[in-house]
Design goal:
This protein has 417 residues and is α/β, with parallel strands linked by helices. Helix content is 36%, strand content 22%. The protein has two domains: 2-79 and 377-416, Urease, subunit C, domain 1 (Roll), CATH 2.30.40.10; 80-368, TIM Barrel, CATH 3.20.20.140. The protein has helices at residues 56-60, 94-101, 106-111, 116-125, 128-144, 160-176, 199-216, 234-246, 263-269, 283-290, 300-305, 313-318, 339-350, 354-361, 363-368, 397-400, and strands at residues 2-12, 32-41, 44-50, 66-70, 75-78, 80-82, 147-153, 180-188, 222-227, 250-255, 274-277, 295-298, 324-325, 386-389, 407-412, 415-416. β2 (32-41) and β3 form a beta hairpin. The longest helix has 18 residues, at 199-216. The protein binds N-(iminomethyl)-L-glutamic acid and fe (iii) ion. Fe (iii) ion is lined by residues 84, 86, 254, 328, 330.
């Protein structure tokens, strides 16, 4: 089966030769073909180019059926890659939202047993089935917003059984949805209440019991630690990443959200695939990242929702770094997985150009979750994960019209979703 999208006003983020990421000044450039076609065969992109170069005979050669779709006036973009989410969770936390409106900080709410521990209570009580159903609905929601690949973390279980339960839900989502999904073990998200005052013992439990069991069931692709003030120290993080490495789990960490925590440096030391949040990042962190294979990832939704200072993205790009952006979809700090809104926040709050936010939410975020060879751009041989917009004036309109849903059709693995 072939699908041929015709008369595309602009085909965006095209790539002739594969790139692992886009860094520095190149982030403001995109491959764009005006008046283009896109050919899909099976689950892959089979060709693209200018309409005037389209050879209909070769498209129709052989006995395949060809479904033609006219995309006049519309843009086609590769699906968003959302490289950082916590979308398996139970219940919601709008009560804390009110606390925040009344002036409490994220750390104060966490200290009172709210925050992550509040979600942990609920996860422990929920069945695997209930968690799956709620997460499945969120996957449907984000697919409709144009997301085609998503990383999902555990980290609301905080005991062995509940962490494994979350990871099994993610495994089922991988099998039962057409999105490309990566899973991350985040046992070190917070110290659970039963280990209060015994943080090192909890870290021992993660290292000696949780990681071996997660690895034995092959439940995770990555290991994460919330390395920040009031959460896990650099030393805890070092021990956990080291244990993860021994079991083949590459690091992908929460760093420098609340303080200059040393999280970036320890992440780079373990060749983390990404370090995420980065509200607190200075010259040392930038220099360290420049020497690394680690993708700096900012989470504009969490910074917006918590009213935090914004990461110095312009400085990072000027220094020559690549930058990725993800939604951080979770009930506490970012209750939204809408990547188009994340693009708008990137433009408005981080002063990024539309081209830069598209790179940050496609090819760079694909790298940040280890799927840049499969998705993240329009390239022959990559998975046919893309969306067609409604009729729009041009690509700048996408982040500009910041609440409009401009996704008209979604294709995942070559099938219309
Ligand atoms: O990425 N910063 C740590 N963890 C999550 C928030 C989790 C929560 O509040 O439930 C984050 O923002
Ligand atoms: Fe997070």
């Amino acid at each position: 089966m072939k699908t041929l999208i015709l008369n595309i006003k602009q085909l965006i983020q095209t790539e002739e030769a594969p790139r692992k990421w886009v860094a520095g000044e190149a982030m403001s450039r995109l491959g764009i073909i005006e008046n283009a076609y896109l050919l899909v065969e099976g689950d892959k992109i089979a060709g693209f180019g200018k309409m005037e170069d389209l050879d209909m005979e070769s498209v129709y050669a052989g006995s395949d059926t060809v479904k033609e779709i006219d995309a006049s006036g519309r843009l086609v973009l590769p699906s968003f890659c959302d490289s950082h989410t916590h979308l398996v969770y139970a219940g919601s936390r709008e009560i804390e939202y009110i606390d925040k409106i009344r002036g409490l900080s994220y750390e104060e709410i966490a200290k009172r047993g709210g925050g992550i521990l509040n979600s942990a209570e609920r996860i422990r009580q929920a069945s695997e089935e209930e968690l799956f159903d709620a997460a499945y609905d969120r996957i449907q929601e984000i697919a409709g917003f144009g997301t085609g690949a998503v990383e999902i973390k555990s980290g609301y279980g905080l005991d062995t059984a509940s962490e494994l339960k979350m990871l099994r839900v993610i495994r089922r989502l991988k099998a039962e949805t057409p999105l490309l999904i990566k899973s991350t073990f985040l046992g070190a998200h917070a110290v659970p209440s039963e280990y209060k005052g015994r943080q090192t013992e909890y870290v021992d439990l993660i290292i000696n019991e949780m990681i071996p069991m997660v690895a034995a069931e092959e439940l995770a692709d990555y290991v994460d630690v919330f390395c920040d003030k009031g959460f896990f120290t650099v030393e805890d993080t070092d021990r956990i990443l080291n244990a993860g490495m021994k079991y083949g789990l590459r690091a992908k960490i929460h760093a420098n959200e609340l303080d200059y925590s040393g999280g970036v440096q320890v992440g780079v030391k373990y060749n983390a695939i990404s370090v995420d949040h980065l509200e607190c990042i200075g010259d040392d962190e930038i220099a360290c990242l420049l020497e690394s294979e680690t993708m700096p990832t900012v989470l504009p939704g969490a910074a917006f929702f918590l009213n935090m200072p914004y990461s110095p993205v312009r400085k990072m790009i000027q220094a020559g770094l690549p930058v990725a952006m993800a939604s951080d979809y979770n009930p506490g700090s970012s209750p939204s997985g809408n990547m188009k809104f994340i693009m708008s926040l990137g433009c408005i709050n981080y002063k990024m150009l539309p081209e830069e936010v598209i790179n940050a939410t496609t090819i760079n975020s694909a790298y940040a979750m280890g799927v840049e060879e499969e998705v993240g751009s329009i390239a022959v041989g990559k998975l046919a994960n893309f969306y067609i917009t409604t009729p729009v004036p041009g690509l700048e309109y996408l982040p500009y019209a910041y609440t409009a849903n401009l996704v008209e059709a979604v294709f995942l693995k070559g099938e219309q979703y």
